[in-house]
Every structure is written in structure tokens, then in C-alpha cells.
Amino acid sequence: MISHLLDFLAPRFCHYCRTYLDSQEYLCALCTEQIRPVLSTILKITRTQKISVHAVSAYEDPLRFLIGQRHEYEVAHALATLIGRHPIVSSLSADFLVPIPSDERHGFNRSYIIAQQVSAKSGIPIYYGIQRIASPVKKPYTWYEQVKKAFEFTDLSALAGKGCIILDDVMMTGATLQVVAQELIKVNPKSLQAVVGCLKLKG
Q1: pLDDT along the chain (203 residues), means of 10
Q2: Exposure check for the chain: N or C terminus, fewer CB within 10 A?
Q3: Taking the model in full, what pTM does it have?
Q4: Domain spanning 36-199 has what CATH number?
Q5: Where are the beta strands (DSSP E) in 19-62?
Q6: Ramachandran region, residue 123 (left: φ > 0; alpha: ψ -120 to 50; beta: rest)
């Protein structure tokens, strides 16, 4: 009775095409079918070290659209739910999830919301060892230099000898993942990989 009343007062719509939904989903069936899976990729971290990056989807709609709605709290939960349900998550094996914090100007941290969903599905605890201290600064710095100035790393010693998974909503150039991974490898984790919502394909 209560659920029917809520549906009447605040009907649910697909977050992408705005089609009415008669369920508690965030995307309609047609939009969900548009999510194109991609193969994992390898990201170079140093001259000799690389990590695997697993993605739910290519950087295409509808997930690209959801990622673009950075100020919407409900959309953040929609994106987190879609990532948390992905088969990649059920196959994860690690000691810690390490989310890369997003901009909190809108009153919430989307990466933490994603991490909580992934942790709930995988049973892997979250390690909050990275703080965003500023938005990337502008030129004359390169994008890599801008990203490096945006984060501060607290005590990462707890990750020594542990399997770690870096979490982020999207990988565009790979600079953010490189900066974080370079800090994490300083404490010699047992293993290191990354999971992102979307991966921008080259070419």
C-alpha cells in the first residue's frame, strides 16, 4: 500500500530516457541493454609496473550521461547501484577497496557512495586513505600535475602486503589512477588493480 502511494506521489522515471518505471530500477530495460561491456585494459604506472583496470562500460550513454550529472544525489546512487550489480564486482578478490574521493561541492562524495555499494556486494572493506584537498588547478600545469596537486594521502601503511582495488567513476586519460597507484605501490601492496564505472576507449 505504502509503495503504491509513493509511486503515485513521486513516480519513478528512467534516469536516462525519462520513461516511466513500474519498478525500483534506475534505468529502463531498453537503456540497460545499451550498456556496452568492455574488456579490461592495462595502465602503465611506472617504467616497470602496470595495473589492470576493469570497467563496467565504455564511456558511452547511458552511463556517460549519469556520470555527467555530478550534482544529483539520486543519480550518484543509480550509478553506484549499476556498478555494484555488475558481474565484475562479484568476482573481485582483495583486502581493501580504495575509493578516489570526488569533489564534495554538491554535499556528497560520489566515489564513497560507489564504494559502499561495491563493498556491500563484495564484502570487501573500504579504506579511506585519500583526501581531495582541491579541484585540479589550471594551466600551466599538465593534467597529470594538476591531478597530483588535488590529493593528499594519509597513512597508507595498513595497505602494505594487502590486495587493493582502486575505485573511481570513470577513467579518461588515466592520470588520476596513475597518481593514486604510484602512491599505493610505495607501501608494497600484495596486489593492485582498479575498477571504474566507465572507460574511455582510445581512438
Answers
A1: 42 87 86 90 94 93 88 84 85 93 81 92 93 71 78 91 95 92 96 94 69
A2: C
A3: 0.88
A4: 3.40.50
A5: 20-21, 41-44, 50-58
A6: left
